[in-house]
Amino acid sequence: MASLKDPAQMASSSSGLTFKLHPLVIVNISDHHTRVKSQSQLPSADSSSSTSTSPSSRVFGCVIGVQRGRTVEIFNSFELLYDPSTHSLDRSFLEKKQELYKKVFPNFYKLGWYSTGADAEESDMLIHKAVSICVTMGYKILCDMMHLFV
After folding, report:
1. Cβ distance 146 to 7 under 8 Å?
2. What pLDDT digit, counting tens, does each position of 48-84 carry?
3. Which CATH superfamily is domain 2-40+55-143 in?
4. Residue-range domain boundaries for the chain
5. Reported pTM
6. What digits encode the pLDDT tens for the residues 10-61?
7. Could you give the angle at the alpha carbon of 21 between the alpha carbons of 72 and 144, nearest 5°?
8. Beta strands per DSSP E along the chain
Protein backbone atom coordinates (compact mmCIF):
# COMPACT_ATOMS: atom_id res chain seq x y z
CA MET A 1 0.00 0.00 0.00
CA ALA A 2 1.43 3.37 -1.03
CA SER A 3 0.85 6.23 1.38
CA LEU A 4 0.70 9.96 0.75
CA LYS A 5 1.53 10.92 4.33
CA ASP A 6 4.87 12.13 2.96
CA PRO A 7 3.93 13.70 -0.39
CA ALA A 8 7.01 12.66 -2.33
CA GLN A 9 6.56 12.18 -6.04
CA MET A 10 8.56 8.98 -6.02
CA ALA A 11 8.58 6.25 -3.41
CA SER A 12 9.77 2.69 -3.11
CA SER A 13 7.79 -0.01 -1.40
CA SER A 14 8.82 -3.10 0.51
CA SER A 15 7.88 -5.13 -2.56
CA GLY A 16 10.71 -3.58 -4.57
CA LEU A 17 8.34 -1.56 -6.72
CA THR A 18 8.97 2.11 -7.41
CA PHE A 19 5.93 4.39 -7.46
CA LYS A 20 5.84 7.67 -9.36
CA LEU A 21 2.89 9.81 -8.38
CA HIS A 22 2.17 12.78 -10.60
CA PRO A 23 1.06 16.02 -8.90
CA LEU A 24 -2.30 15.98 -10.73
CA VAL A 25 -3.32 12.95 -8.67
CA ILE A 26 -2.65 14.79 -5.41
CA VAL A 27 -4.60 17.81 -6.69
CA ASN A 28 -7.52 15.57 -7.75
CA ILE A 29 -7.67 13.81 -4.38
CA SER A 30 -7.44 17.11 -2.50
CA ASP A 31 -10.20 18.63 -4.65
CA HIS A 32 -12.43 15.57 -4.19
CA HIS A 33 -11.92 15.63 -0.41
CA THR A 34 -12.53 19.39 -0.18
CA ARG A 35 -15.76 19.22 -2.21
CA VAL A 36 -17.18 16.36 -0.16
CA LYS A 37 -16.20 18.00 3.11
CA SER A 38 -17.73 21.36 2.15
CA GLN A 39 -20.92 19.70 0.88
CA SER A 40 -21.31 17.80 4.13
CA GLN A 41 -21.23 21.10 6.05
CA LEU A 42 -24.05 22.73 4.07
CA PRO A 43 -27.21 23.61 6.04
CA SER A 44 -29.75 20.80 5.97
CA ALA A 45 -33.01 21.27 4.05
CA ASP A 46 -35.27 20.67 7.08
CA SER A 47 -33.60 23.15 9.41
CA SER A 48 -31.78 26.33 8.46
CA SER A 49 -30.12 26.67 11.86
CA SER A 50 -28.37 23.30 12.00
CA THR A 51 -25.71 21.84 9.77
CA SER A 52 -25.43 18.28 8.66
CA THR A 53 -22.01 16.80 9.01
CA SER A 54 -21.34 13.39 7.60
CA PRO A 55 -19.86 10.92 10.05
CA SER A 56 -16.96 10.37 7.69
CA SER A 57 -15.61 12.70 5.06
CA ARG A 58 -13.51 9.94 3.52
CA VAL A 59 -13.52 9.87 -0.25
CA PHE A 60 -12.67 7.10 -2.69
CA GLY A 61 -11.40 7.08 -6.24
CA CYS A 62 -9.62 5.15 -8.93
CA VAL A 63 -6.00 5.75 -10.01
CA ILE A 64 -4.84 5.22 -13.57
CA GLY A 65 -1.46 5.00 -15.21
CA VAL A 66 1.05 2.42 -16.37
CA GLN A 67 3.34 -0.19 -14.93
CA ARG A 68 6.60 -0.83 -16.73
CA GLY A 69 8.53 -3.60 -15.05
CA ARG A 70 9.01 -2.68 -11.39
CA THR A 71 7.98 0.98 -11.89
CA VAL A 72 4.37 2.04 -11.35
CA GLU A 73 3.56 5.50 -12.70
CA ILE A 74 0.24 7.01 -11.66
CA PHE A 75 -0.80 9.84 -13.98
CA ASN A 76 -4.40 10.62 -13.10
CA SER A 77 -7.37 9.71 -10.93
CA PHE A 78 -11.12 10.01 -10.79
CA GLU A 79 -13.64 9.70 -8.00
CA LEU A 80 -15.70 6.59 -7.34
CA LEU A 81 -19.34 6.63 -6.33
CA TYR A 82 -19.37 4.83 -3.02
CA ASP A 83 -22.37 4.14 -0.77
CA PRO A 84 -21.11 3.94 2.83
CA SER A 85 -24.37 2.45 4.10
CA THR A 86 -24.01 -0.65 1.90
CA HIS A 87 -20.22 -0.51 1.40
CA SER A 88 -20.77 -0.78 -2.36
CA LEU A 89 -19.42 0.92 -5.45
CA ASP A 90 -21.35 2.01 -8.50
CA ARG A 91 -19.63 -0.39 -10.92
CA SER A 92 -21.42 0.94 -14.00
CA PHE A 93 -20.06 4.44 -13.20
CA LEU A 94 -16.55 2.98 -12.83
CA GLU A 95 -16.80 1.12 -16.14
CA LYS A 96 -18.17 4.19 -17.95
CA LYS A 97 -15.35 6.40 -16.65
CA GLN A 98 -12.81 3.78 -17.73
CA GLU A 99 -14.32 3.73 -21.23
CA LEU A 100 -14.01 7.52 -21.47
CA TYR A 101 -10.40 7.48 -20.25
CA LYS A 102 -9.52 4.68 -22.69
CA LYS A 103 -10.66 6.86 -25.60
CA VAL A 104 -8.35 9.70 -24.58
CA PHE A 105 -5.52 7.71 -22.95
CA PRO A 106 -5.49 4.27 -24.59
CA ASN A 107 -2.24 3.23 -22.86
CA PHE A 108 -3.43 3.97 -19.29
CA TYR A 109 -4.88 1.26 -17.06
CA LYS A 110 -6.78 1.25 -13.79
CA LEU A 111 -3.99 0.46 -11.36
CA GLY A 112 -5.90 0.65 -8.10
CA TRP A 113 -7.74 3.06 -5.88
CA TYR A 114 -7.34 5.76 -3.29
CA SER A 115 -9.03 6.80 -0.10
CA THR A 116 -8.53 9.59 2.38
CA GLY A 117 -8.08 9.08 6.09
CA ALA A 118 -5.39 8.61 8.70
CA ASP A 119 -5.47 4.80 8.62
CA ALA A 120 -6.96 1.96 6.65
CA GLU A 121 -10.32 0.79 7.96
CA GLU A 122 -12.00 -2.62 7.94
CA SER A 123 -14.48 -1.47 5.29
CA ASP A 124 -11.55 -0.77 2.96
CA MET A 125 -11.22 -4.49 2.33
CA LEU A 126 -14.76 -4.58 0.90
CA ILE A 127 -13.94 -1.68 -1.39
CA HIS A 128 -10.65 -3.29 -2.36
CA LYS A 129 -12.44 -6.49 -3.36
CA ALA A 130 -15.00 -4.57 -5.42
CA VAL A 131 -12.34 -2.48 -7.17
CA SER A 132 -10.05 -5.47 -7.73
CA ILE A 133 -12.67 -7.06 -9.97
CA CYS A 134 -12.42 -4.08 -12.34
CA VAL A 135 -8.78 -3.02 -12.13
CA THR A 136 -5.56 -4.21 -13.71
CA MET A 137 -3.60 -4.10 -10.44
CA GLY A 138 -4.73 -3.74 -6.85
CA TYR A 139 -2.69 -0.84 -5.50
CA LYS A 140 -4.17 1.37 -2.80
CA ILE A 141 -3.14 4.92 -2.00
CA LEU A 142 -4.05 6.20 1.46
CA CYS A 143 -3.96 9.99 1.64
CA ASP A 144 -4.02 11.58 5.09
CA MET A 145 -5.46 15.01 4.26
CA MET A 146 -4.72 16.34 7.76
CA HIS A 147 -0.96 15.90 7.26
CA LEU A 148 -0.58 16.23 3.51
CA PHE A 149 0.37 19.91 3.36
CA VAL A 150 1.81 20.40 6.83
Report:
1. no
2. 444 443 446 789 999 999 999 999 999 999 999 888 7
3. Cytidine Deaminase, domain 2 (3.40.140.10)
4. 2-40+55-143
5. 0.76
6. 555 567 889 999 999 999 999 999 999 898 887 765 544 444 434 467 899 9
7. 120
8. 2-3, 10-12, 18-21, 60-68, 71-79, 82-83, 88-89, 109-116, 139-143
